[in-house]
Amino acid sequence: MQCASRPALIMSHARHLHSRPSLSRAVLWSYLPTPVRYTIGLALQEGLVEYYSSLRQRGHESRSDGLLLLLEHTPVYTTGRRDLARQDEASQAREREIQAEAERLRLTGADYVRTQRGGQTTYHGPGQLVGYPILDTSLLAMSTREYVDALQRFQVGLLRSRGVRTIDSPHTGVFTSESAKIASIGIQIRHRISSHGFSINIEDRVRSRFAEIVACGLADVRATSVESQTGTALSVRDIVPQAVRPS
What we know:
globular
């Protein structure tokens, strides 16, 4: 994919991320209405990271722009760095367990992909809004932890605008109760450019897919959705206008 050399093909609109002033820079956004296979989304992100990294290295004036890519994925289970770190230290028996789990999940009709994002195993698929902010973090005046917190505040604000009540939690992500999680965060920062990002469960159909795994390593937590929390049928497309509304 030639996304690094022709980014204008997907940079269609401008907005501001809702949050505190340090994330209020203008950010371009693009919504892909057809579910995208995870490996294609990953390749697109990698191309954009290379593009923004090259702008940064050249000191290009437009490097202040970022991109918020919004989409749904086709069904996929992904692992993050925490799972991969455990795998590096595991015995051959543990590796066989991981391979067996990957095969079991593939038999459900989903892909299984190992990634370099933060976090552990999770699910992405139709009915879930996924956001990939591709940003030059050197311009944000915040630490990685502060960036994650800003993404979480963005999610909370979006959910509350749809009537979903959330609680504070010691875990990363957004929870509606101590045992119900509605949104996740897992990022990667390379050459000071962010990739991966967040997901929000919109439609109730995602819950059965999450039931196949211990999502994010939280055995006592189940997945919930905006549809489940509000009792209102809606789609990811219904949420996008609020996700990109300037604060």
